[in-house]
Amino acid sequence: MKMTLRWFGSGHDSVTLEQIRQIPGVTGVITTLYNKQPGEVWNLPEILELKNEVENAGLKIEGIESVNIHDSIKTGSPEKDKYIENYIITLENLAKADIHLICYNFMPVFDWTRSSLAKKRADGSTVLSYDQDLIDKINPETIFNEINSNSNGFTMPGWEPERLSKIKELFETYKDITSEKLLENLIYFLNKIKDTCKKNNIKMAIHPDDPAWPVFGLPRIINSKENIQKLLDGVNDDFNGLTLCTGSLGSNPENDICDIIKTFGKRIYFAHIRNLIHHSKGKFDEAAHLSSDGSFDMYEIMKTLYETGFSGPVRPDHGRAIWGEVAMPGYGLYDRALGATYLNGLIEAIEKSSKK
Ligand SMILES: [Mn+2]
Question: Which of 12, 124, 295, 299 has its CA 20 to 30 A from that of 93?
C-alpha cells in the first residue's frame, strides 16, 4: 500500500507539500486541479505544472481526486456527449502525464452532506457530523450557505459557491431521475470512456455515496454491496473499479466493510480510511482514526485490505480539527498526520505478523 494525503493544491489548501513530505511514510499525494469546473478540459501543460510542483517537493501524484462529472452526464441530458468528449480529452492528458488513477463520484447535486462541520467533542476537538433529524428540518439552500460560511474561508469540495445560484435549477433537472436511471447514465458514461481507459491503463475508482442513503430525495446508487455489484457487473471490465471509503460506506452500519473488501478486492484501486462513531440510525460523528475512538475495527479493515493483496494508494480521510489548527474542515494537517502514522503502524504490524 502507498500512503498518501489528499492535497487541494497551492492556494486552495492550508497544508503545504513540504509539510506532507515530513509525515513519516507518506510518499505521495492525491490531488486535483481545484479550479476546474465539472465538464472543463484539463490541458496537458497545467497537469504537468501540478505534477512538477509535487515532484519538486519529493512526492508523487498517486491519483486524481476528483475529475468531477458534469451534471448533464448524470442526468443524461442531450449535452452529455459533448461533456463526455471533454472528459476523454482530460483522461488522455492525465495519462500523458503518467497519471492513471481517477477517483470520481456520481452523486446528484451534492458530493457529500453533513449537518455540522465543527461539532465539539469532549476532548475539545471538532469534527464533521451528520444528523438526519437536523437535515430533515433544513432546505438545500440553507445547508449550502451553512457549509460555505463554516468552512474557515476555504471552498469545500463539491460545495463551490457558484453552484448555489443554480441549486433550484439543479434539483429541477434531477426530478425525474430515479436510481435506475442514474445507474443507466453512469453505465452509459463508463461504456463511452472504456476504450480510452483501456488504451491508457486508466483505472476509474468510483467514490461511494456519502452518507450511504438518499438525502433531500435525491437518488443514491453507490451505497451498498448489492448496488456496487450492479455497477461493476454493468460494465464488467477492470478499468471500472471502486474507491473503498470506510467512512462513506460505513455511515450505514448495515454495510459490512470487511465483507465489501473481500467481495470486490481486485476491483478496489484506492482506499479512504477513517473512523466514525455511530449514535443511532442516521446519526454519526467523524472520529480520530484509531479503532478505540470510533465504531470501526480499523485493524480488521487494514488486515482485510492487506489480505486481498491491495497495493494501491491509501489515505487517511477526514481528521478532527485539533491543536488550534485552522484548515478546511476535515482536511487539517495534524489529525490526518496522526491518522497516516497510525495506519502505517497497523500496516507494519500486519505485514510482519503475516510473515511469521
Ligand atoms: Mn472518502
Answer: 12
